[in-house]
Write a structure and sequence with these properties.
The protein has eight helices and 19 strands. It has about 400 residues and is an alpha/beta fold. The chain has an eight-stranded mixed beta sheet with strand order 6-7-5-14-15-16-13-17. A six-stranded mixed beta sheet has the order 9-2-1-12-19-18, with helices on one face. α1 packs across α8. The longest helix has 21 residues. The termini are far apart. The site of flavin-adenine dinucleotide (FAD) has 38 residues, from α1, β2, β3, β13 and β17.
């Protein structure tokens, strides 16, 4: 009898995990309350950056390298067109420590990250104003962006084509913290319609909803923060701000802004990486705020002068599902050994989907274990110096 596994959540983490488990021979049921890459999910929206630049956190550089291999292989096999290799242009102000540390870590892993001079960068990208506020520039040639919502849908379609069962259904937020039997195993989950799913093992990859589903085990360690994303209209007939003439760019100064070139005719994407206010992922309002739009416009005028008066043609509100240290969570439930919890992508999880799927499938099937940095036990002791940030 193949092992029966239920995966709750069909975002970047759950979808890839379900597909990987199915490919390793498990009988898998995947459920999602609103569908893969839905507009409330952290994996929703048009695009996400894929980069291996992670400062001293080389565990993520290595994971991103593996994920990129898998995204490429997936595109080659299914012609899905989910990854676009535009390169990523990194622009730093006076503190370029993150760039320098990344270059060292990536060199050790054989991932290119090349320094550019401002004059070289200006020649290459004349549509960008490299003023005095930009002190150091790096070019990450293997990086680029992924189509987010479309990838989630594609992966679930593959999962079903390869024999998995997908259902649009919601697991009740009832009592998963306490529902394990005396042997410390969960037998079934209850759905909102009061039906149940029985399985040998369960994976909860519920993004920003993890804390509500597991108030004891996770609780406020996954904090959903409101993040706005803007799409600005480019001049008619002008391709300078579109893929392939424009790369992904990330500006790390007092704040981190980033953007993805115009693609799928949606406009030029700009976002502020600063953590926003708390948001309820189910009920939170998803209209862009005037102050957020104004901040994006100000940066646009400074860095991309030709877009200073560009009209806002669209906006999305998503949420980071942030842990205190920006590290992921991959662990067994403390009271139920056959329940795995995966999330805490903290604004950088999407790209890792295929590698996360491999890791979780190994964990669930008993031939792998998560890095201690991702285990829940780390939250019991706050590190000396406090929780560090993801751009450190
Ligand atoms: C604006 C923004 C920009 C980002 N930029 C990047 C980037 O450039 N690069 C990058 O790598 N990452 C980025 N991220 C982070 C990344 O998108 C997330 O970390 C990642 O998508 C999280 O995936 P997930 O599967 O854990 O969660 P989700 O995508 O939220 O998936 C969870 C799923 O669980 C379902 N669910 C929840 N509760 C239940 C339930 N009770 N029953 C059934 N289903 C349920 C939901 O419907 C949802 O589909 C960004 C995030 C945001 C918001």
């Amino acid at each position: 009898m193949p092992v029966q596994i239920a995966v709750v959540g069909a975002g970047a983490f759950g979808g890839w995990t379900a597909l990987e488990l199915r490919r390793r021979g498990a009988q898998v049921t995947l459920i999602d309350a609103w569908g893969p890459g839905n507009a409330r999910a952290s994996s929703g929206g048009e695009t996400r950056v894929i980069r291996a630049t992670y400062g001293t956190r080389s565990i993520y550089s290595a994971m991103a390298r593996r994920a990129l291999e898998r995204w490429r292989a997936y595109d080659a096999e299914f012609g899905a067109g989910l990854f676009r290799q535009t390169g990523v242009l990194w622009m730093f102000g006076s503190d370029a420590g993150f760039g320098g540390a990344s270059a060292d870590a990536m060199r050790a892993l054989g991932i290119p990250l090349e320094p550019l001079t401002p004059s070289g960068a200006s020649r290459r990208f004349p549509q960008i104003a490299f003023d005095d506020s930009i002190r150091r520039i790096f070019w990450e040639p293997d990086a680029g962006y992924l189509f987010a919502r479309r990838a989630c849908e594609h992966v679930v379609q593959r999962f079903v084509a390869e024999g998995g069962e997908y259902r649009q259904a919601a697991a009740r937020a009832a009592d998963h913290d306490a529902a394990a039997d005396t042997l410390g195993r969960l037998r079934r989950i209850e759905l909102e319609d009061r039906s149940t799913i029985e399985a040998d093992a369960f994976v909860f990859a519920c993004g920003p909803w993890l804390g509500a589903l597991f108030p004891e085990a996770v609780g406020r360690r996954v904090a959903p923060t409101r993040q706005e994303v803007y799409y600005f209209g480019t001049p008619a007939g002008d391709t300078r701000f579109h893929d392939p003439d424009m790369p992904v760019w990330i500006e790390c100064r007092d704040r981190v802004f980033y953007g993805i070139p115009g693609n799928a005719n949606r406009g030029f994407k700009v976002a502020d990486d600063t953590s926003g206010p708390p948001i309820d992922p189910t009920w939170g309002a998803r209209e862009a705020t005037p102050s957020g739009i104004a901040a994006a416009r100000e940066m646009l005028a400074r860095r991309f002068p030709a877009l200073a008066d560009a009209p806002l043609v669209g906006a999305e509100v998503c949420q980071y599902e942030a842990t205190p240290d920006s590290h992921f969570i991959v662990d067994r439930h403390p009271a139920a050994a056959n329940v795995w919890i995966a999330g805490g992508g903290s604004g950088h999880g999407f790209k890792m989907g295929p590698a996360m799927g491999e890791l979780l499938a190994s964990c669930v099937l008993g031939d792998g274990s998560p890095d201690p940095q991702w285990q829940l036990a780390r939250f019991q002791v706050e590190p000396a110096g406090g929780w560090s940030e993801k751009w450190s």
